[in-house]
Amino acid sequence: MSAAVLLAIGILVWFQPQKLLIDQWVDEAIPSAAPPAGPEAGGPAASTDRPDPITLAAGQFRSLGHGTTDRAIALDLGGGMRPLRLEGLARRCCI
User: Which residues of the chain have pLDDT under 50?
Assistant: First the structure.
């Protein structure tokens, strides 16, 4: 293989130009906490009611080099689960 081919392969691997054409969108529901342990686990009887998530903190992203629109939300689902949720995340480049 010539040096030019190796260089071209290295550039393609490093810069990943296919990501300019691929747009990945993820739309997931807010996760819920695991149900409480039932009598078989030695805990209280399991109920079907799950508590609503508690918002611990929320804030807007600050645009610096590129414009952004969105917000981040830290949730407490109970049972030690504290996910970070990104809503409306979009990047806008100034052309």
Answer: 95
